[in-house]
Amino acid sequence: MINPWHKRANELIRDPLALLPLISPQPVRQFFSGDSSSLFDRFVVIVGSPGSGKTTLARLLEFSTLSSALDAHTRSEVRPLIDALNSAGVISDLKPRVLGVRLPANAQYRAIWELPYSEDIRHKLLRSLLQARAVLGWLRQLEGERVALNQIELITTGTGDAERTAIHADSLDQFRMLARETELRIFKLLSALVPPGEAELAGYTSSVTYDPLSALSAIVIKDFQGTGESIELRPMLMIDDAHELHASQFQDLDLWLRNREVQIARWVLTRVDSISPSEFRRTQLVDDIETPLPGTSHGRDRLIRTLLGRDQNRQAFRLVAADIGKRYLAQLTVFANKGVASLADALSEAQPSLTSTDIKNLRDQVGALSTETAVSQSSLEALDQVLPENAPEDLRLAVTRIFLNREALRTPQRSLFSGPSADEQEESSPKKVGATLVNGAALQLLHEFDRPFYFGFTRLADASNQNIEQFISLAGVLVDELETLIVRSKPPRLDARRQHKLLTARATKIMDEWDFPYAPRVRRLVDFISEQCVEITRRPNAPLGDGANAFGVPQDDLKLLDQDTDLAQVIHYALAYQAIVMVEEYSCKKRQWCLFELGGIPSIAAGLTFSRGGFVEGRMSQLKQQIDR
Amino acid sequence: MTKPFDPVKSALQGRDVIEYLDTHFKGKGRTLFIGNVGFSADAVFCASRLAGVPNVDFRFIFERRPDVPHQVDELAKAREDELRQLLGARLVIEPIDVCASDGAPLAGRHTCVLTDRWLKSAEYTDVVVDATGMSRSTCFPVVKQMVDHSRALKIRVHLVVADSDGNGSLGIESVSGERGDWIHGFQSDIETDAKSGALRLWVVQLKEGAGPVLNRLFTDLKTPNEVCPIVPFPAGRVPTRGDRLLFDLRDRWIDDWGESPLSLIYADESDPTDVFRAIGELHAARQDSLRGAVDSVTILSPLGRRLPSIGMLLAAQKYELPLYYLETVGYKVTGPVKLACGTQPDHLWCFRFLPS
Prior knowledge:
The structure holds 2 protein chains of 2 kinds.
Chain A: H1 16-19, H2 25-32, H3 38-41, E1 43-47, H4 54-61, H5 63-71, H6 79-88, E2 91-92, E3 95-96, E4 98-104, H7 107-112, H8 119-144, E5 152-156, H9 162-166, H10 172-191, H11 205-208, E6 216-221, E7 231-240, H12 247-258, E8 265-270, H13 277-282, H14 297-301, E9 302-306, H15 315-330, H16 333-338, H17 343-346, H18 356-373, H19 377-385, H20 393-410, H21 435-449, H22 457-462, H23 468-487, H24 496-512, H25 519-538, E10 550-554, H26 559-563, H27 565-576, E11 580-588, E12 591-598, H28 600-606, E13 615-617, H29 620-627
Parallel strand pairs in A: 1-8, 1-9, 4-7, 7-8, 10-13
Antiparallel strand pairs in A: 2-3, 5-6, 6-7, 10-12, 11-12
Chain B: E1 12-13, H1 15-23, E2 31-36, H2 45-50, E3 56-64, H3 70-87, E4 91-97, H4 107-120, E5 126-130, H5 136-153, E6 156-163, E7 172-182, E8 199-205, H6 211-220, E9 226-232, H7 241-248, H8 250-256, E10 265-267, H9 272-290, E11 296-301, H10 306-319, E12 324-333, E13 347-353
Parallel strand pairs in B: 2-3, 2-5, 3-4, 5-6, 8-9, 8-11, 9-10
Antiparallel strand pairs in B: 1-13, 6-13, 7-12
Helix pairs in contact in B: 4-5, 9-10
């Protein structure tokens, strides 16, 4: 049996029936919320980081997956998904309404750009190849579901016969043959060790003018599944991983697919970096993404949608993570037999405690500080009252220590022999101690006494950067440990220390295994930011509450990225692989900042908060210095 | 009718290669030597043996990568100086960008245009391709291109490779790109509609720390139906290397690929013909058993040490198999780096492709 926690991507699961129970309906509902019809009648660009679910979404909409889902619609784990797809208009009356095909824009498409021809011909070749493969893909999908060619009728947009004749719309055999010939011809150009010159392209005229998509509007299946009924499907082309195309190819694709005369549904799924660098950075501001704006040409021609981007409210992702956790656990018999249905139930939230020696040490520090700062016992007791009720003694002492250190900084320097003056006897009592300061204290205890910090389901979800694959990767190590406990007939519950240890080890391993362009320099960048953030997090007075996890530079410093391509490339890959997240135009101290916030994995590895907004002030030149060879 | 010359059966190795290089080219027609400016000591060995032969034109590629630490640049520069000292004005070096600014792999395509120009610049009777320091995405298309030309232009092609067990690049690790691609010229027709339903068998070399790369390749190849990892055995100076690789990469071959020890191919990592034979037998057996039932494709991915990769190249060339590869886009320095002295390599091979 497949252990989905070990599959680092849904792409590794070939069988649609095995994939379906793992797809959470929550992100599907979220994605299609609002007027979903606009997602099918115009060009849609879907952006997201690796692992955010782009490919899963595209695979879900492929005809073969939809058909499998409909076949399995009575299964309880698939029913919520059917419901979500129904609301989205992808299916209705338990029949598919779209004929989707996903084409990964792999290096072969990018290689067209390297052919020694004019830009116009290269763009036409790319369009032709995509169309040929879309046509072949649609027919393969239909045949895979036992639809014979003679059951298929093509509906075209044009009023005249010329368009139908050009693409052989009245003969499915010839329609397919033309697509195959086009694919093969372009393939020969691509695979030639030294391609023929442009002057020798005379035999390729039909390949550069192949354009069935502008003619096609619908595909009708007669006698669908032997019911005697006909169904009309909207053809859908999904170009996945479009960031692998050359920037000019991407621009041409944008121009071509925006054309409202193309009536099929057309999506481009891409990592954010395929958009221009400035647009790419702007998409980090989640609200800045284009939304369907009636009356504006942008919204009319093209929609840009993000998949679970950086959102201030993490609650939505926690729900998705909980649902995925449930679905994935249900696949493992060992958990089902033990009645463990939710990951949250198996991850203890109980606060860990320091050893008595460490607590004594902490108590002594607090005692010495209170004498030094002359804070009264009543003030300390008042502070104790405003701490969270269930906070254990070590955490209370750590918060008190921060409070006293803050007080020490406020108290003027005294003579060695004089006591406190009368007006210094009492300091203002804190009104309340927020969760931020408590977390700051817990992080200080982590660094000082190795007290566990990363435990509980909420922190696990927050560590995942709103990225499903990252969540699975982190949670997988906890699930493995739980499975071992069950096999050894022990209660399936992990205490805080074990969770923390496993998660930090996994985060460190993931970073050690980073293997993408510029990874060594991205690592240096991350290590530098981490060091700065750890220093401020560990400061006795916790000036930022729970510390920092970002390096902030004045917004104007970003101009350096336009001048320094080397630095821009390192930042580019750091962002693409979620080593860092960039937050632009962040207002603080009456200035605009750009924050380079560490991703969840580096934050765990360094022992930092997941809270947003705490940053170390610096300059872009410092980052450059770190990554320079 | 004479039987075509078999480059594998007639392969030369060790001292025989030295003797061949020292004697074969003297007094022959004009010879084109294609090499690469690498940083390992082995990269200059074959050129040095031919330095004294006046009718050899030395053409070297310099593979430019986007992210190379200065220590590695300095090593390559030192090797270049060494070559200049050895070959003087006969040395021509031309740079090739291994990838575009957006990270797309380019090496094979651009190199073929360059080597085509070199080959047509004079009337050559022999071409020596020195695979020692060359990236596989550069070397393999060049070999294919020269072998194709050998038939049409009646040119003798000699593929030479030198390799040492402690290959002189200790302290340097490669950094992979993020985009896999078919090695240029070895795409076969696998991406076309005709092959869309074919069962995919993937033969891949294992390599230390290659977990993420293997994952990427496996996903790119649309989760092949079967995987046969090549395990080095016997393995150079560390006899347990194969076992260690299997243990370190167990998540991949057991969990992700669902394979068992029955799928493993054990091949001598210092003998390209061993890998060649193993792939040949596997491919033939599969073709036989599936004939008439379902179409099948054997895909090869060179990843680890160079010599087994050469075996893959020979198999791909003979059986027209596709090769899928993830390019090295840079290096990281993990320890002290110093220029290794040029001694005789531990392993030397020469494969000859002669026009029939």
